[in-house]
Amino acid sequence: MSVSLRDVTVRRRGKTILGPLSIDLDAAGFSIVLGPNGAGKTTFLKILHGVERVTDGTAEWSVSAEEARQAQAYVFQSPIMLRRSVGQNLAYPLQLLGMDKADVAKRVLDWAGRIGLSDALERPAPRLSGGERQKLALGRALIRSPKVLFLDEPCANLDGRSTREIETLLLAAQRDGTRIIMTTHDLGQARRLASDIVFLLNGQVHERAPASEFFTTPKTVEAKAFMEGDIVE
Amino acid sequence: MSVSLRDVTVRRRGKTILGPLSIDLDAAGFSIVLGPNGAGKTTFLKILHGVERVTDGTAEWSVSAEEARQAQAYVFQSPIMLRRSVGQNLAYPLQLLGMDKADVAKRVLDWAGRIGLSDALERPAPRLSGGERQKLALGRALIRSPKVLFLDEPCANLDGRSTREIETLLLAAQRDGTRIIMTTHDLGQARRLASDIVFLLNGQVHERAPASEFFTTPKTVEAKAFMEGDIVE
Amino acid sequence: MNEIWAGILAAFRLIVTLDGDLVEITLRSLQVSLSALVIASAIALPFGTWLAIRRFRYRRATIATLNALMGLPPVVVGLIVYLLLSRSGPFGVMGLLFTPTAMIIAQVIIITPLIASITHQAMRELWAEYHDLLISLNTSKRQRIATLIWDGRRTLLTAALAGFGRAIGEVGAIMIVGGNIDHATRVLTTAIALETGKGDFALALGLGFVLIALALLVNFAIHALSRTEREGTW
Amino acid sequence: MNEIWAGILAAFRLIVTLDGDLVEITLRSLQVSLSALVIASAIALPFGTWLAIRRFRYRRATIATLNALMGLPPVVVGLIVYLLLSRSGPFGVMGLLFTPTAMIIAQVIIITPLIASITHQAMRELWAEYHDLLISLNTSKRQRIATLIWDGRRTLLTAALAGFGRAIGEVGAIMIVGGNIDHATRVLTTAIALETGKGDFALALGLGFVLIALALLVNFAIHALSRTEREGTW
Amino acid sequence: SMRMAVTTSFHNSGLSDVLLPEIKADIGLDVRLLVVGTGQALKLGRAGDVDAILVHSKAAELAFVESGFGTHRREIMYNDFVVVGPGDDPANVSSATTAIEAFQRLHAAEHLLVSRGDESGTHKKEASLWQAAAIDPSALGAWYKAVGAGMGASLNTASGLNAYIMSDRASWLNFGNKGELELLFSGDPLLFNQYAYLPVSAARHPHVKADAAQALERWLTSSKAQQLIDGYRIGGEALFVFNAVP
Ligand SMILES: Nc1ncnc2c1ncn2[C@@H]1O[C@H](COP(=O)(O)OP(=O)(O)OP(=O)(O)O)[C@@H](O)[C@H]1O
Ligand SMILES: Nc1ncnc2c1ncn2[C@@H]1O[C@H](COP(=O)(O)OP(=O)(O)OP(=O)(O)O)[C@@H](O)[C@H]1O
Ligand SMILES: [Mg+2]
Ligand SMILES: [Mg+2]
């Protein structure tokens, strides 16, 4: 399922933090959203997902709003932990669907293994280390096998090995038909994963291109400077 | 001022998450604490700083506890924002010292510039983007010119340019005599900054070495595997 | 001052001799207050939570009104319930006046706004924390409320205990709708009011101390059961 | 039911004619309740916050006791204050009995535990959030309490409003220590109790509605001033 | 069982604790008392929430029967009012010979005086005595404290203020918080206080237990009741005088 934003603007406290911006994202692929801090990446993802209110314009999915929401999952930049154990956090999205207990338990065990938290199932989630939380949030998003997956810097606090494992998981999910839209500040990671790049600057889509093209021949000076870690103004 | 930990153990809910561990850190240098997720890095830093309770053993600074605490600053892995404006967050540590208003205002302006948040002074801090929060937390820690600075993955959510600027700031602080103890998952950053490395694994100090040595000739297979992003068990 | 000692003594005597009347009115106090607490909580916890998660036009006004209703004067509540339940009132045929049921109704009206207000305030923080996640998971309103109440159950304890405290110590309303009838609707507070009227301060204080002891007991029991303080806010 | 209409009518008449007695007792109600609120808040806000940040041996017991004290029966508080202030009591020489001051004292005792309990509960969350930072910045106890109260001021509003509600609607204690003396200590709630006793339900209800209107007014005013709802929890 | 609304002064005397068990034993009737102000008792009767009332306020009682809420009014017994005040008696009430003189002395002395001020039977009686002494009670100075409360609460206030107060004898004798107050004046027939029994009209409120009310009336006017009422004493003093016409 694809989505199109039309003249979307987000204003908060009188300041425009995103837009006006129009963009189409189609049903397949692995889009990576790049941009400096405060560019509006998180806001952009939240608008697509529908958890942030737009001030102006429309965001429309090719399917009904209800269906779209049900098929999506989101991993927030600062992971939100339910005040429950790790196992209960993983089970929660399944319980919402009314899945029966035995099934839930099986899937929870399976996913706890995949994200490397099998030992921590009984631990209170709010007490996890920074990296463990990110993994838990990822597992909780993937456990429902969403059709569209939003990831906001999901590997920021992960060690090298975990990052690699998560990347493998994500590529597998994409192969299985999951549409992924992700932000990251790790350009290496972007190169490894992206099929296309959305480059945001000051709340605007500054450049959009297939990944290969963007990294080899960026069209704007700002994108080039950004990749070199230079001043982007 | 230097610190020594003697047989420090941290147990939570019956599980040992750190130690038993003994280590000395001396008064100068830029130590980087490495280790996989859940190794105990954050706990280790918090024990040194004295915000986490030890179950057994002692952590002692070369000066009195009061003096040590007053001279330290800490940037937490998930930045803690006071529910105030950015400017008030920066001013807070100075106000605690009873510094007069004009001085506070001047320093706040100065530091807001250095961390690149001059435009955001009036914004409520809890509404900042992930990267902006990290910058604010950094500025708030540095504004008191601490003698010892703890940093827990301070650049995890920063873009390339901000990371570079922060690194410059940190190196400058170190040159001016600040003792820095930092964790990171970015090995490149560790190479650029560290004078010595503490490699933690399963709550234990697994290897300790000067940076040059650690990166070129790690003594343990685990450290080697960690750097290659391999399975560390 | 002597009277305070005499009161403590009276309380002591009442308790050790397990005075029959005392046991009866104490049990009735508990029955009425706990019933009122259960009913009020069943209304106020979901309602307060709902108010925390829902944005609508008159939200602020609703909250201000709810807060104002915490100040409902018990005597007025008593009067209105009396008028409704009186034989010449609309629900007169049910014959509820001067029964414990009537007292429960009055107390529910008095403590529901209190519990709902505290619930609302406590749930706002939790909702701010959970907001994005619960919206993202496409939860229904009902699921959101259930999740918040469950995960916030320990902070909701104060709300419930405040309600219980208000109920068990209340006298104005239940005096009017219950009538303080011996062996039928007399509870600790109305008995205290009665003894005060007779100038028998020692006995009144004695009953008062029994009531306070009861409140302490209930609170310690609930705290012990819920282990509120074991692991910080979690 | 007719009486309820008659009550509404009576309230209306009292207000439009600006009845002199009504104005007098309304102002006294406000004066007593607001004074009690200010004093109780000055004690309870720091104390509740202190309880939230401090770990000590009998912390749980202290909190359970505080919660239990929310159930202090007003009549008993009234009695004890009466005994202390009566001429044969220890503070008799001050001649405070049957004055508004005595009523304020009784109300402070009644609402302080309520405000402190709600404060404690609200501040625990904020403290969990701020804990590491405030410890790290080497703040003194006093600075911690001040920071929490300031940054949590909006969530503390419910605590204060609950206290105000309890004070303005309370009758048992102030009847005993104030004496409901005409032109000296009569307030809205005691006047309502009086009219109820006289059987003049319409007037009692009328006064009750005036009291509720007053509570609404105060709440709306405070909400408007504090703009609690403007920006989520911040 | 049946419900009867009574005034505080009747209940505070303690007589009900003697009578109710006997009634239960003799005619098997469980009488539930609602202890309220006179006005409220009449209100409860009007609304049909009780089966009978026992009060002491003749004019209001007659009006109650007149307007058809009660079947009739049956006088049962009387007690009397007394003037209570500080032991040193600054108004010298104790040497008055008549109630009117006592009230005039109270007026002259301007010592603190607590009035029920709640339009109860007792309060109305007090007002009539002021009138008889040619004094307007609404024009008295700050020494006249209209407290607007029941008998017990008013006595507590008087005790706290060390003030004069007019009380019914029964409440006074049963009152525990006497402080420095003493009984200073009593005995004038003007101070008599008639209690009457009024069954609520079953024609008006078909659900009332007219049979029970009738049975109670029969018992209250029986010689058994006479014995118990006349024989009820506190500290050796008789409180009530039975005067029902059989
Ligand atoms: N409610 C708000 N009020 C004021 N400013 C806001 C608000 N919400 C967001 N902003 C600002 O909008 C800008 C974009 O925020 P956003 O979180 O989308 O950035 P981002 O691209 O995700 O940055 P990062 O890489 O640091 O996560 C930031 O400068 C932020 O401070
Ligand atoms: N209160 C607690 N109860 C149980 N387990 C805990 C508690 N606090 C921490 N832990 C566990 O202790 C381990 C070490 O945590 P710590 O936060 O120090 O890890 P870390 O090295 O900083 O990891 P990361 O790189 O992910 O930040 C983790 O596995 C964590 O789940
Ligand atoms: Mg972001
Ligand atoms: Mg960590």
Uncertain parts of chain E = none
Distance between the termini of chain C: 45 Å
Distinct helical segment count of chain C: 10
Give the overall shape of chain C, derived from the CA principal axes: globular
Please describe the biggest sheet of chain C, giving its number of strands, its sense, and whether it closes into a barrel.
none
Structural class of chain C: mainly alpha
**Can you tell me the number of structural domains of chain C?**
1
Averaged pLDDT of chain C:
88
CATH architecture of chain C: Orthogonal Bundle
CATH topology of chain C: MetI-like fold
Structure description:
The complex is a heteropentamer, with two copies of chain A (about 230 residues), two copies of chain C (about 230 residues) and one copy of chain E (about 250 residues). With about 230 residues, chain A is α/β, with parallel strands linked by helices. Helix content of chain A is about 40%, strand content about 25%. Chain A has nine helices and nine strands. In chain A, a hairpin with a 2-residue loop joins strand 1 (about 5-10) and strand 2. Chain C has helices spanning about 1-15, 20-55, 60-70, 75-85, 100-135, 140-150, 155-170, 170-180, 190-195, 200-225. Chain C is globular. Mean pLDDT of chain C is about 90; it is low at about 230-234. Chain E is α/β, with parallel strands linked by helices and about 250 residues long. In chain E, strands 1, 2, 3, 4, 5, 6, 7, 8, 9 and 12 form a ten-stranded mixed sheet that branches. In chain E, strands 10-11 form a two-stranded antiparallel ribbon. The model of chain E has no long low-confidence stretch (mean pLDDT about 90). The interface between C and D is large, with 72 and 72 residues. The complex binds adenosine-5'-triphosphate (2 copies) and magnesium ion (MG) (2 copies). The site of one magnesium ion (MG) has 4 residues of chain B, from helix 1. One magnesium ion (MG) binds near residues 42 and 152 of chain A.
Keywords:
heteropentamer, A: 233 residues, alpha/beta, Rossmann fold, 6-stranded mixed beta sheet, 3-stranded antiparallel beta sheet, 9 helices, E: 246 residues, 10-stranded mixed beta sheet, two-stranded antiparallel ribbon, 10 helices, 39% helix, 24% strand, binds adenosine-5'-triphosphate, binds magnesium ion
